Amino acid sequence: MEAENRVLLVEDEAPLRRSLEKFLEWSGYPYDSCSSARDALVLARSSKYDIIILEYHLPDANAETLLRDLKLVSPDMASIVLSEFDYPAVSRKLLTVDVRSFLKKPFDVAELESAMISASSKQSAPGGKSEWEQRLVLDHSPASILLRELSEYKYC
Fold first, then answer.
1. Collapsing DSSP states into helix, strand and coil, what is residue 112?
2. Residue 85: count of CB within 10 angstroms of its CB
3. Kind and range of the H or E element at 53?
4. For residues 123 and 15, what is the distance between their CA atoms, to the nearest angstrom?
5. Which end of the chain is less crowded, N or C, counting CB atoms within 10 A of the terminal residue's CB?
6. C-alpha to C-alpha distance for 93 and 70, rounded to whole angstroms
7. Which are the contacts of 66, defined by CB distance < 8 A and separation ≥ 6?
């Protein structure tokens, strides 16, 4: 992984946010984190981020709305959306904004690491569609994502 990629983490569930912060720290990513769309916009206006990891449903906005606002501030920022909601319903809404990866909760840290590498590459898949968009179009099923039994990343 490339440590020069600065990450903005937006997650309102404190235990998961702490676990993701540990993952980013151990992986060598410089990051800032917050729990709301409002705070994310404040941080994005004051610092440059290469990647954003965000929960789809935040207390004050959803990912689609926040990403539209963030793209005005930082148009090149790659995004990874996390959600416990129905994969097809949420991901179809996200087709209108540039989302690099979509991870359904619970997810494995290896899946997040893969999404981070993909976001870091800033390359689109053939046809300009991300891997999750191709899965959605091809088989309409959620990615098979398993939660590892790593105690430092476990959450409910």
1. helix
2. 14
3. strand 51-55
4. 32
5. C
6. 16
7. 10, 37, 40, 41, 54, 58
**What single DSSP character describes residue 41?**
H
Per-residue pLDDT of the chain (156 residues; tens, 9 = 90+): 445 799 999 999 999 999 999 999 999 999 999 999 999 999 999 999 999 999 999 999 999 999 999 999 999 999 999 998 866 777 677 777 888 888 988 888 899 999 998 888 864 444 454 554 444 433 333 333 332 333 334 443
Instruction: Give the number of residues written for the chain.
Output: 156
Burial class (CB in 10 A: 0-12, 13-18, 19+), 124: middle
Phi, psi values for residue 33, rounded to 5°: -135, 155
To the nearest 10°, the Cα dihedral for 7, 10, 16, 18? Answer: 60
Burial of 145 (0-12, 13-18, 19+ CB in 10 A): middle
Fill in the DSSP letter of residue 105.
Answer: S
